[in-house]
């Protein structure tokens, strides 16, 4: 009898310890509760809780009851994957007369990403093969933001002026070699600011893209005389290549919307054949007289990006949240805006482990408030539209760690 009681006690204790261990093992680091999750990849557009453990998404469910070290109440907020800005300039430095290649016009990433919900930023051509290592050691290796890059076809990078006109410094083979050497960071090839009358720089850029098996991003404009935009989109670029500044009207580039307000027929055809239309707002590359009619006639952007630098952040662009809000007020749905800022960019740069909140993915998350009111939005020629919607980033999480918390959602209340 005694042995039987002892045995039952041992078994009972073992069961208790076993289930107690399971409970302990299932404790999450952070749970976000009561938020409205929009995750285009996984087709979520509903209220869901999200649990994080060891920097990864551990569980997504209508209600998570397991314990957590920390809980964020996202009641009234939207929960998105961490935003991906695929056109920015973050090769900040102090070199004189070097434009955005290790100079003053670029910006250090961490100061201008998390507060707008951005967890991944892609530098658009600041460095070429000659100075990419400097960019990596100086910026990428020290940033908390995940920094990726389009490497410039110009070996010296985007230094502006005559340096970017030097055909002798545009080497597809050497550019591709560097891209493959740093394939963990380099996601594409960039061409910008060439103003000559020939297609040669573009062809070299595409050749580098072919050699490295990555897309190219084209900043098309400034050509004297103008080159055919239809030929660029329908013949020169490959499906998956990126046409940035898609709503620009700049000198030396044929606009997508003509003087009669009609979208050129080839624009939608190019998008159907796989050309990526990227916003790339910037300080001079987003006009309402292009964006409004283009969107109304069916040309919505594949990706939303800022073209962040000192010349754009204090003008009409401001930040990623402002650009997203602007597109929201121009007729894109909230779901379209989020997809063009998360999952689509991840696919464009071939980083499909990013831009979504599936179980096992990196816990890169942004929480936004969608405000209703009266707001003004400005383009690059100081025209304003009035809107009634505005996205405000409340909290940003990178790899499971809170990196931006506007109103202390993840903080303990101080006793009054």
The proportion of residues in beta strands is 25-35%
Major sheet size, sense and barrel closure:
8 strands, mixed
Helix content: 10-25%
Structural class: alpha/beta
Low-confidence runs = 1-24
Per the CATH scheme, the topology name of the domain at 81-348 is TIM Barrel
The number of strands is 15
- Measured on Cα atoms, how large is the radius of gyration? 24 Å
Keyword list:
TIM Barrel; 416 residues; globular; seven-stranded parallel beta sheet; disordered N terminus; alpha/beta
Verbal overview:
By secondary structure, this protein is α/β, with parallel strands linked by helices. The chain has a domain at 81-348: Metal-dependent hydrolases (TIM Barrel, Alpha-Beta Barrel), CATH 3.20.20. The chain has helices at 2-25, 132-138, 172-181, 200-212, 229-236, 265-272, 288-296, 320-329, 334-339, 343-348, and strands spanning 28-39, 44-53, 56-61, 68-73, 78-81, 83-88, 118-124, 146-152, 186-192, 216-219, 242-243, 276-277, 365-378, 384-398, 401-405. The strands form two sheets. Strands 1, 2, 3, 4, 5, 13, 14 and 15 form an eight-stranded mixed sheet that branches. A hairpin with a 2-residue loop joins strand 2 (44-53) and strand 3. Helix 3 (172-181) runs parallel beside helix 4. The radius of gyration is 24 Å and the shape is globular. It starts with a helix and ends in an 11-residue tail after the last strand. Mean pLDDT is 94; it is low at 1-24.
């Amino acid at each position: 009898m005694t042995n039987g009681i002892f045995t039952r006690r041992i078994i009972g204790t073992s069961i208790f310890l076993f289930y107690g261990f399971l409970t302990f093992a299932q404790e999450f680091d952070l749970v976000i509760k009561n938020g409205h999750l929009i995750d285009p990849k996984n087709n979520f557009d509903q209220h869901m809780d999200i649990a994080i453990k060891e920097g990864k998404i551990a569980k997504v469910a209508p209600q998570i009851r397991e314990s957590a070290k920390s809980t964020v109440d996202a009641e009234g907020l939207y929960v998105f994957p961490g935003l991906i800005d695929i056109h920015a300039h973050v090769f900040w430095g102090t070199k004189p007369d070097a434009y955005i290649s290790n100079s003053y016009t670029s910006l250090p990433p961490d100061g201008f990403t998390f507060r707008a919900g951005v967890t991944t930023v892609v530098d658009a051509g600041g460095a070429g093969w000659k100075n990419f290592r400097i960019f990596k050691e100086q910026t990428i290796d020290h940033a908390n933001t995940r920094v990726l890059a389009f490497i410039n076809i110009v070996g010296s990078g985007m230094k502006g002026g005559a340096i970017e006109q030097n055909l002798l410094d545009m080497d597809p083979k050497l550019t591709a070699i560097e891209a493959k050497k740093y394939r963990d960071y380099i996601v594409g090839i960039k061409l910008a600011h060439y103003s000559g009358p020939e297609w040669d720089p573009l062809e070299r850029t595409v050749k580098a893209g072919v050699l490295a098996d990555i897309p190219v991003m084209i900043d098309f404009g400034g050509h004297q005389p103008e080159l055919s935009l239809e030929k660029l989109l329908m013949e020169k670029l490959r499906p998956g290549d990126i046409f940035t500044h898609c709503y620009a009207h700049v000198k030396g580039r044929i606009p997508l919307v003509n003087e009669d307000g009609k979208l050129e027929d080839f624009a939608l055809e190019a998008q159907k054949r796989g050309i990526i239309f990227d916003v790339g707002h910037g300080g001079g590359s987003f006009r309402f007289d292009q964006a409004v009619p283009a969107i109304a006639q069916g040309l919505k952007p594949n990706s939303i990006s800022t073209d962040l630098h000192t010349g754009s952040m204090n003008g009409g662009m401001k930040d990623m949240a402002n650009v997203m809000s602007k597109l929201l007020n121009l007729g894109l749905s909230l779901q379209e805006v989020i997809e063009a800022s998360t999952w689509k960019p991840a696919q464009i740069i071939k980083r499909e482990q990013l831009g979504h909140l599936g179980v096992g993915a990196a816990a890169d998350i942004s929480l936004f408030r969608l405000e209703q009111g009266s707001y003004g939005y400005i383009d690059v020629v100081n025209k304003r539209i009035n809107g009634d919607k505005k996205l405000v980033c409340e909290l940003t999480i990178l790899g499971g760690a809170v990196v931006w918390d506007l109103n202390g959602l993840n903080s303990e209340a101080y006793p009054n």
